[in-house]
Amino acid sequence: MNRIAPSLTGAPRTIVMGAVLTVVAIAATFGLDPYRNFQLATIVAYFCAVAGLTLLVGLTGQLSLGHAALMAVGGYAYALTASLATDMGLDGLPRFLLGMAGAIAASTLHGLLLGLAGARLHGPYLAGLTLGIAIALPAVTAQFSGVLGGDQGLRIDRDDVPAVLSRLIVVEQWQAWVAIMIAGVVVTGLAAVRRSSLGLRMRAVRDDETAARLSGVPAGRVKVVAFTLSSVAAGAGGAALCFVTQSVSPGAYTLAFSLLLVVAAVVGGLGSIGGAALGAALIVMLPWLVATLTDLVDMPAELEQRLSGNLGLLVFGALLIIVMLARPGGLAGLRRGRRTRRTSAEDPTPPSGPDAVAATSPTGATAADPAPASALREMPANDQPRTPQTVLQSPTERER
Amino acid sequence: MSQRTATGVSLDIAGLTVGYGGEPVLHGVGLTLRPGEVVAVLGANGAGKTTLLRTLAGLVRPTAGSIELGGADILTLRTEDRARRGLALVPDGQSVVAELTVDENLRLGALWRHRGAARERAIAEIYDLFEPLARRRSSAGHQLSGGERQMLAIGRALVAEPALLAVDEPSLGLAPLIVGDVMTALRDAAASRGLTVLLAEQNVTSALSIADRGVVLSLGTVVADAPADLLASDADLRHAYLGF
After folding, report:
1. pLDDT band at A5, cuts 50/70/90?
2. A203, A215, A351 ranked by CB distance to B109: nearest
3. Chain B residues with CB inside 8 Å of A388's CB?
4. Range(s) of the domain holding residue A247
């Protein structure tokens, strides 16, 4: 994108890039058979949730182990609102839009409530809270089985291919299109946030909450907003999945799946949108790939039975370990590693792009202070003496 | 450096008592700064300098006392809201956000105050003030030298055009030559912007060289409050409270 349209910067660039990638993904569905299109739709639904999670963990440092439950919130809200719309005699686009509105409203509310609690909790405590939500989901659906359908979950009517397109594509491809468009909007939004000043505030809060607050950043509010955005992304993913499978049930959003979403974000590379796409593709394709490969190998029936379902997890665990050892930045870090090395080297050329505005005042520097420019030299920063006073106060700093 | 929106304000601290659970660290500290005044808070380790500044910024809650900035009570405000009232604290230890670049650190400081072109202008002014930073725009905070980090920490506070700048031990961990540069830059910034400055230092000589007035803290109470030149020249005062 840099080389294609260098003049395009900031949010417009993110939007154009998101639109281009969405169109490319839609075009790609023509090359896939119905089952592959179904897999693609699942991948992009997961992509929403993983992208939301990677933004939360990577940018604000808040860990959620319950994102599957937040997906379920979106899925259930979509199913309930869409059923309601069916009862009102709506179908097609109006029903879909109502369903999405319901899903987004419900996941905003849940994200806000969890975020408000989470902003007061640090590290393992927030992880524990979200873990609890993931564990509680089946019990909640069982308790309110009248509305949420218990273990069976909810089923909704299928949305058929619109009449204009019905000669061109089959329903699986149409579902993939819808899922891709949902993911396109959601992830483009997340990418824009990541590049915005809100993204900068989030990273500042993650790295040094005290410094951020001293710079006027309302750290608590930033965390709540981040959690809410992440929850909306997960909810949209859940709604997309509900649209594709026409069903939502607690069995689809287990604790194991919640943890798998975290693994996807970590393997892909925390904070990276591209990494989230890779991670989402991995959690859908890897079990299938492993199953296909084991089918090729001739092995005793007993062994095959034991491996079935478990081998995929084993491979996933191994992959996680390998990535953490070889590439702590995740798979997306393969690319980023190179970029960091380039910028860290002393770069005498003036920067281009948005930064260049600040560089255009070569005069006036000497008027303010002639001394620091000449005399400041490299000093090692890390071995400063700790006075008893600072040692005394560091625990209170941690607590806050 | 013309058309400043913010100039220095007064600061009134009275009866400030602060503790971390046990024996108070500050006992009824009172301190008044006139607008545009540069005041050095001096004292040995454990005298309460850092606690005073952290309480001022709202990072520590006092058990008693009042803090007024420009005549308005700020004691109930949160840290971020005090920053938005024009109170900037540069904490000790060259506080920069290590994972952000120099440019991002400065943008962070300017976010709430400026938008668009005004933000870029404010950042450009900081690069004028601290030239070494201009050469390291895209370096991460953790890649900077100690002096550069201290400049960036001060720059991040100044870019928001505060009315009161509180700086905690800017000389800590820096080579003497660089301490002089940082102090000069602080003095110039204060003079050109009409800032009120509260400077906590153990390095008495360099602090008094840029201050109008010196306040000596000892074991959590104010034991001396005198013009900087008097404090620097009066051998008895120096010997009694500053130990040289």
Report:
1. low
2. A215
3. 45-46
4. 10-254
